[in-house]
Automatic annotation (TrEMBL):
<comment type="function">
    <text>This protein binds to 23S rRNA in the presence of protein L20.</text>
</comment>
<comment type="similarity">
    <text>Belongs to the bacterial ribosomal protein bL21 family.</text>
</comment>
<dbReference type="GO" id="GO:0003735">
    <property type="term" value="F:structural constituent of ribosome"/>
</dbReference>
<keyword id="KW-0699">rRNA-binding</keyword>
<keyword id="KW-0687">Ribonucleoprotein</keyword>
<keyword id="KW-0694">RNA-binding</keyword>
<dbReference type="GO" id="GO:0005840">
    <property type="term" value="C:ribosome"/>
</dbReference>
<dbReference type="InterPro" id="IPR001787">
    <property type="entry name" value="Ribosomal_bL21"/>
</dbReference>
<dbReference type="InterPro" id="IPR036164">
    <property type="entry name" value="bL21-like_sf"/>
</dbReference>
<dbReference type="GO" id="GO:0005737">
    <property type="term" value="C:cytoplasm"/>
</dbReference>
<dbReference type="GO" id="GO:0006412">
    <property type="term" value="P:translation"/>
</dbReference>
<protein>
    <recommendedName>
        <fullName>Large ribosomal subunit protein bL21</fullName>
    </recommendedName>
</protein>
<keyword id="KW-0689">Ribosomal protein</keyword>
<dbReference type="GO" id="GO:0019843">
    <property type="term" value="F:rRNA binding"/>
</dbReference>
<comment type="subunit">
    <text>Part of the 50S ribosomal subunit. Contacts protein L20.</text>
</comment>
<dbReference type="GO" id="GO:1990904">
    <property type="term" value="C:ribonucleoprotein complex"/>
</dbReference>
<dbReference type="Pfam" id="PF00829">
    <property type="entry name" value="Ribosomal_L21p"/>
</dbReference>
Length: 102
């Protein structure tokens, strides 16, 4: 079993070839491909976490599409003062498919 743990958008995701992952919005190159930085690489029983060895490993993914996350409602309220505030937020996300781990 070959998989990698990659750093993307402030989080770490476990990915395999063919898996689809939703990440924070990232820009792709003109072909629609993205390179992700590996943090850990597992090839059967061999585990690689050394920075020099990981620099030689590339994890490439193709962008499937851009989307937006669910709406998050933020409400602030202070008792007896008449202070109320409502805000909302939707995260910009990108869905990618892992094409190769070399």
């Amino acid at each position: 079993m070959v998989y990698a743990v990659v750093r993307a958008g402030g989080r770490q995701e476990k990915v395999e070839v063919g898996s689809i992952v939703v990440l924070d919005r990232i820009k792709a190159d003109k072909d629609g491909n993205v390179e992700l930085a590996p943090v850990l690489f597992v090839d059967g029983d061999k585990i690689t976490h050394d920075a020099k060895a990981l620099a030689k490993i590339t994890v490439t993914a193709e962008v499937v599409g851009d989307l937006r996350g669910p709406k998050i409602n933020i409400q602030n309220y202070k008792n007896k003062t008449g202070y109320k505030r409502r805000m909302g937020h939707r995260s910009e996300l990108t869905r990618v498919k892992i094409t190769s781990i070399k």
